[in-house]
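Lecture 7 notes. Example A: sequence first, then its structure tokens.
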Amino acid sequence: MPEIVPVELRNQLEARKAELNQRIARIKADIARGLDADSKEQATQLENKEVLDALANEATDELAKVNAALQRMQNGTYGICTGCGKAIDSRRLAVRPYSSKCISCAA
């Protein structure tokens, strides 16, 4: 079992979830803004939108991992490797509380 109290981990994951949801909303708002009339400025804006899109994808992926970890907590399977079924080292969970696999299976 992890050394960190599950309530603390749940709070940490819930805070990260809220942060990611806010980040995704801000990125989507930036992406939704219209383009400038100046064609040179449009090129820069399009490049920026590509970067923002990549950042949104990364945040969405992490959010899915956080949600899955919260679901595992609810199901009582949190801290158990989805690969081999053994306990995930508490040090790994302290660093990456949404980890679903032990270090061996993740490698």
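Example B, a different protein, same format:
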Amino acid sequence: MNPVYTIMTPTKIPVGKVDKSINKQFIKDCKEYPNEDLKGMAQSGLINPKFISKMDLHLIKSIQDKYIRPYLFDILMKLFIDSTHYSPLKRDVIQNYHKHINIRELWLVEYDNESYFKSHTHVSLPSHYSFSWYLKCDTNRKVIFISENKEYEVIVSEGDILMFPGWLSHRAESSNSICCSGNFEINVSM
């Protein structure tokens, strides 16, 4: 029988910025699509949300046209390139290949001081990533990632967007904030 070795490599969690001028309108547009399955959300680890939208906001044409295509696609692609383990001199290698991004889920959650998200993961497939876009939050909003039984705090501010592997466990503590999260897949054609 062959031995199996587990080698952990550093996981990069790049942080980007989305133009904050769209946040209020995006929140307003998303609130037109409430989630009716709050029990299902509680089973996923989301406790007492002030509001949660449907999980498939990415399928709504007005959301695609006003927010996903003009803002999210470019930022997520840039964060994907920033998260690769290529040396700075080799970045142009991946930048020159054709890349396709496919958002699988997109949802919005409004938290208050009674709301939080227990430790959870999103999608556990190699080419699938997740992101969190902080539309409204305190300056020092903490997001906790868990790897090898250790916790790592990432501090975010309003307008920040984090990209991370979908399999990476994370949680969100109580805080008055509004966050848009999603899952996506990137295919690079050589």
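Note on Example B: The chain is about 25% helix and 40% strand. The longest helix spans residues 61-83.
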